[in-house]
Amino acid sequence: MAGVDGEWDCITKSPLGEQKSVFTVKSDGGSFTGSNVGAQGALDVIDGKVDGNKLTWKMEMKVPMPMTLDCQATIDGDTLTGTVGAGAFGAFPMTGTRKA
User: What beta strand segments (E) does 15-64 contain?
Assistant: First the structure.
């Protein structure tokens, strides 16, 4: 599981433009904790799950409007690819690279 652990420099392509953030993952068996910190503030990982190199989690966004984000990502070495689901607004692609 440790292959998913670390800090990731991420970009999410949203309707508001590219949102840069640092996504932190700390796995513990089949679950993980962490946060996603960007210009809009810090969002804690909720219900983080690890299945091999696949992650799923939720985040409670407050700005610009309250919403639960449904997220998933796949880790391949030092590369992260996934999506951030924003309900009726659709899903936005998220990419990242592991910080050294």
Answer: 17-28, 31-38, 41-44, 46-51, 54-61
In 55-89, which positions are buried (b, 16+ CB within 10 angstroms) versus exposed (e)? bebebebeeeeebebbbbbebeeeebebbbbbeee
- Domain 2-98's class? mainly beta
pTM: 0.93
Q: Is the dihedral of CA 80, 62, 51, 8 positive or negative?
A: positive
Domain definitions of the chain by residue range: 2-98
Bridge partners, 16 (sequence order): none
Banded model confidence at residue 16, pLDDT cuts 50, 70, 90: confident
What 3-state class would DSSP assign to 88?
Answer: helix
pLDDT digits (tens, 9 = 90+) for 31-71: 999 999 998 889 999 999 999 999 999 999 987 789 999 99
